[in-house]
């Protein structure tokens, strides 16, 4: 026998898209009850009748009725039938009125002071691919098929430890391959047990900051310097002092009232200016670290991509048992979405930091780590870096020529070394680099303002221009648009 309740349920059932019939019926009846189409005390259609109307088996309807009854939507009365429960009325009265509810807004009052400070200084770009975005490699030239073949072969004889939590700080074979590579290519003094594999460089920086600093401790950073380090220090309530950078790298103060727990540097290719820390400055920094019982955190940023002269060896390898924590990543040499970085820890820190990493972050991705270990051992990694070094060198020179031709030699910054994945386009001191960058971004030119990398009031005006992720034949047209924006806004 047809009923009004049956018609209401039938219409709602036709609106559901789930492939499982019992889930469609359950969702249909729930929506009817919660939206008020089936009011409290409404008699539900008998299971046999509803099954006939919806062309379902009676068992399907009974299964749904049992579930709804267990959840309190409906109740059965002996010899009377099944009804929507009266208690549903209480639930409906407590539901917010969606029609009159104000639009959802950010509840910043619930956020911590650390979080609010980080949000106010957030600098990550919402887009991560396009003309002149700095810090992003050319991901299209990576030999994806080669790495996938290795990974597929390992997957066919999958070991159980690849599928569980990692408690050893990374795949052992990857740590061995990395130790060999870093000793040879970067002059790093390390054994495999000193290496910890992390999920990118930010996790490595966060781990080091959390484990070695208490709230209100002090750190030194470079001025200008990487925004990611500042935000990690902010969220961990660590105070920091920005130390000026010149053509020889960070300038340590002659004396300091407060000793830093951590000293963050990018000695081989300073980020973002590009200067290389001199040998005398490196020795001075090591002396200060030993004197103040501080740890130097060496971010070996873009060290692989040096286009002239000999590679700059690491600060970590300059002395035996140096007070240096060496950090690197595969994001620039391979591709960012891989989310693999690494830390070379001084021997006294290796065991405790690995334990903390295991407890806080629960590492994984062991299959791709094992594949990457073979990728390195078989020489594919070094070959890829050589290939990309040549490609980036050509793209960098193309961009330098475009700047000199369309804007003039004065727009090439004084610190630009022939290395890395970006260069600095220097603007006149009075130019508003933030406004120019914003105008460029609206046209799809993903440049960054240099002033954003400073903490103190004295700032240089300029733009960070990445050249790695744009083809040479596309560069001229894109740069002409950027040059037009600059000329129109620099008096």
UniProtKB/TrEMBL annotation:
The keyword Plastid does not apply. Pfam families: Aminotran_1_2, GntR. InterPro entries: Aminotransferase_I/II_large (IPR004839), HTH_trans_reg/aminotransferase (IPR051446), PyrdxlP-dep_Trfase (IPR015424), PyrdxlP-dep_Trfase_major (IPR015421), Tscrpt_reg_HTH_GntR (IPR000524), WH-like_DNA-bd_sf (IPR036388), WH_DNA-bd_sf (IPR036390). Residues 19-87 form the HTH gntR-type domain. CDD domains: AAT_like (cd00609), WHTH_GntR (cd07377). GO terms for molecular function: DNA binding; transaminase activity. The keyword Endoplasmic reticulum does not apply. Keywords: Aminotransferase, DNA-binding, Pyridoxal phosphate, Transcription, Transcription regulation, Transferase. In the C-terminal section; belongs to the class-I pyridoxal-phosphate-dependent aminotransferase family. This is PLP-dependent aminotransferase family protein.
């Amino acid at each position: 026998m047809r009923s009004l309740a049956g018609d209401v349920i039938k219409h709602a059932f036709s609106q559901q898209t789930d492939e499982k019939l019992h889930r469609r019926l359950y969702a249909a009846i729930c929506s009817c009850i919660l939206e008020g189409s089936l009011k409290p005390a409404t008699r539900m259609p008998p299971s046999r009748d509803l099954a006939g109307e919806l062309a379902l088996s009676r068992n399907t309807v009974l299964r749904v009725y049992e579930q709804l009854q267990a959840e309190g939507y409906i109740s059965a009365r002996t010899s009377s039938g099944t009804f929507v429960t009266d208690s549903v009325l209480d639930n409906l009265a407590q539901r917010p009125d969606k029609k009159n509810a104000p639009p959802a807004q950010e509840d910043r009052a619930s956020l911590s002071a650390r979080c609010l400070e980080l949000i106010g200084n957030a600098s990550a770009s919402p887009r991560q691919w396009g003309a002149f975005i700095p810090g992003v490699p050319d991901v299209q030239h990576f030999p994806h098929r080669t790495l996938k073949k290795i990974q597929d072969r390992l997957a066919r004889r999958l070991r159980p430890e690849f599928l569980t939590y990692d408690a050893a700080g990374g795949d052992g074979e990857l740590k061995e391959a990395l130790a060999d590579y870093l000793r040879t290519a970067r002059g790093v003094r390390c054994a495999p047990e000193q290496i910890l594999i992390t999920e990118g460089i930010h996790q490595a920086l966060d781990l080091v900051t959390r484990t070695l600093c208490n709230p209100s401790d002090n750190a030194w950073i470079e001025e200008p310097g990487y925004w990611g380090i500042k935000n990690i220090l902010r969220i961990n309530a660590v105070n920091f002092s920005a130390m000026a950078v010149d053509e020889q790298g960070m300038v340590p103060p002659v004396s300091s009232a407060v000793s830093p727990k951590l000293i963050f540097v990018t000695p081989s290719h300073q980020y973002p200016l590009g200067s290389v820390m001199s040998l005398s400055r490196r020795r001075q920094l090591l002396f200060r670290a030993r004197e103040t019982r501080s740890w130097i955190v060496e971010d070996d940023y873009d060290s692989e991509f040096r286009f002239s002269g000999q590679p700059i060896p690491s600060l970590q390898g300059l002395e035996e048992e140096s007070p240096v924590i060496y950090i690197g990543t595969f994001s620039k040499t391979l591709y960012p979405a891989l989310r693999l970085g690494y830390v070379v820890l001084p021997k006294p820190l290796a065991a405790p930091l690995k334990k903390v990493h295991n407890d806080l972050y629960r590492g994984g991705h062991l299959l791709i780590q094992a594949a990457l270990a073979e990728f390195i051992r078989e020489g594919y990694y070094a070959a890829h870096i050589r290939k990309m070094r040549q490609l980036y060198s050509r793209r960098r020179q193309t961009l330098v020529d475009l700047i000199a031709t369309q804007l003039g030699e004065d727009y090439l910054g004084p610190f630009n070394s022939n290395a890395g994945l970006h260069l600095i386009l220097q603007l006149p001191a009075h130019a508003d680099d933030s406004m120019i960058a914003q105008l460029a971004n609206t046209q799809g030119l993903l440049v960054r303002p240099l002033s954003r990398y400073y903490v103190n009031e004295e700032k240089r005006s300029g733009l960070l221009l990445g050249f790695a992720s744009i083809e040479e034949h596309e560069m001229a047209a894109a740069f002409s648009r950027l040059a037009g924006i600059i000329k129109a806004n620099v008096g």
